[in-house]
């Protein structure tokens, strides 16, 4: 906080050096949580929590680094997940039937549930189905949880492969 006040980053927005310091803090925190046996993502999350939110500092930092994260780090994370997915583990027709069944049930349950909920809240059918479709999209958080489960040996490679296909 003292550094931010002294540098004027709270009033004028973060400078390049403050952005670099913030990123260094997140990476260092990630490293040390990894060293103690906790997944590195929790360290970065904690670094984000302790960043000051006064004067919109956290929002300004987010605005400055979101292009870098979206253009570089997220694609790399998804590529890494794809490279570590082994479709060869899905080698039988029964396994593929199971995968298709799980994907179908997951999609339609979420689509129908969200569509009906939106319709009951007064939206027209077209808008309700749009919400149902959008709510059926899968996200990054699910991939992160799957990767943590795989690294901790809680989930098998086959289970993670099926779940990653479900996330598409």
TrEMBL record:
One example GO MF annotation: antiporter activity
Keyword presence, Ion transport: yes
Chain segments annotated as transmembrane: 20-47, 68-90, 96-120
Cation/H+ exchanger transmembrane domain ranges (all copies): 13-162
Major place of residence: membrane
Sequence similarity: Belongs to the monovalent cation:proton antiporter 2 (CPA2) transporter (TC 2.A.37) family. CHX (TC 2.A.37.4) subfamily.
Record-given protein name: Cation/H+ exchanger transmembrane domain-containing protein
Lineage: Eukaryota, Viridiplantae, Streptophyta, Embryophyta, Tracheophyta
């Amino acid at each position: 906080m003292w550094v931010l006040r002294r540098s004027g980053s709270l009033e004028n927005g973060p400078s390049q050096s403050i952005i670099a310091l913030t990123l260094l803090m997140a990476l260092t925190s990630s490293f040390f949580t990894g060293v103690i046996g906790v997944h590195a993502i929790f360290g970065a999350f904690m670094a984000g929590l302790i960043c000051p939110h006064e004067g919109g500092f956290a929002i300004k930092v987010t605005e400055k680094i979101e292009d870098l994260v979206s253009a570089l780090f997220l694609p790399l994370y998804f590529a890494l997940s794809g490279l570590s997915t082994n479709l060869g583990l899905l080698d039988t027709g029964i396994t593929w039937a199971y995968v298709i069944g799980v994907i179908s049930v997951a999609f339609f349950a979420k689509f129908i549930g969200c569509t009906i909920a939106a319709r009951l809240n007064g939206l027209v059918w077209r808008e309700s189905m749009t919400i149902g479709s959008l709510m059926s999209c899968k996200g990054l958080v699910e991939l992160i949880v799957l990767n943590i489960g795989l690294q901790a040996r809680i989930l098998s490679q086959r289970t993670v492969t099926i779940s990653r296909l479900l996330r598409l």
